Amino acid sequence: MEYLTNILSYVGWVLLAIMILVFIHELGHFLFAKLFKMRVDKFSIGFPPKVIGKKVGDTEYVLGLTPLGGYVKIAGMVDESLDSNSLQNDPEPWEFRAKPVWQRMIVITAGVAFNLILAAIVFMSLKALYGEVFIPPVGSIRIDEGSIAYDMGLRTGDRIQAVNGRTIDGSEPLMGIEEMLMVERFTFDVMRDGQFLSFQGPRDIMTRLNESRGMLGVNFDPAIIGNVSEGSAAHDAGLIAGDAIETMDGESIMFWSEMTARIKGSEGSAITVRWRRPDSLSGIVPLGAGRVVDSPGTGILYEASIEPRLDGGTHIFGILQIRRYRTYNGTAALTAGLTETWRQTKLIAFSLKRVFTGQENFRANIGGPIAIAKVTKEAADRGAPFFWNIVAMLSITLAIINILPIPALDGGHLVFLIYEGISRREPSLKLRMGLQQAGMVLLLAFMAFVIFNDILKL
User: Quick check: 103 and 34 in contact, CB under 8 A?
Assistant: First the structure.
């Protein structure tokens, strides 16, 4: 029963995402067709067989049983139905083919535009509601053994100076996936034992990331305090936000994960802690047990014996790791949302280019309905922001794929219209029908391939 419930939850989330995307896409075609006074015969979410339908005016609104798409049937247009009977006669004023080329171009591209608009609205909303939180890339890095970064030559203790030539100063996240995919091979410049070194990423980084579940293996885990709880053991010792832990019981501490492991393993015994307070905070004197000790270097070094306190079955100091918080409101959220939409559009386009030009493994990087269901379910389990982020990404992907110049897709229709606009004559109906049929066969074959490929990867 639990297995069945889990399967249904996968199906439920992906259906919700697909229904949103398809509805928005087809709504774009529908609204502009109506605006230009074209007759819309059918507005369908899902393909046949029909589950429910209701006719309002000239249009029948349909919910289909096959949920992998949808369509708007506009009178006088060669579409997914491949119905050409009405096209044998002279065009009527309300038909698609009777309208100026520029109007038909707008109708054809409106679905793509609406998908991009949806993504922009989602990103704007996420920026306004949640902002951004990240661990600043400061101090030494921790490298997972056997990871992509480890294979590149990076090692724990390296200090990253630049990524793809961009200097790392701690004010921005280390690097996004786009910085790895939008160059032939990304680079890390690091400092190791006073020596400047440069390392190149693999050429097939997408494939490698898929194999490692998206983990590059570079971790910024600074032992720098971001917040101290009032009345906690750390607060009583005089620790404040911005202090960097250097040693515990005389042993060097490089990463936050090392520090928390020692605290948890102390079983409540007192730990002698040394921490360094940066020059910018040197005017703040500890109010607790901390005392100054002599030490070379910048800032002031303090020491105190701190006894962890039990909280929920775990011994803690009452401190949180440093985080960077960025909030957006009004114009800032609008600008950030549009910027993110453009950034993700470029990323997805570059990713598809890498796959279809053979730079990446085709089968490893192409996902169908099963892969989409898995990703969508995992995002939904993490919370609403992650689900809506996936919806926005899928919306952009749908827009890019639909604008490709393939018959049966919006881009294929657009190619015919561009030809008509330039030559001042419409391509023959026989040619359009033949290419439309070929396009449908191609798309169905591709869909069968990706579904089979998804099954093999389970």
Answer: no
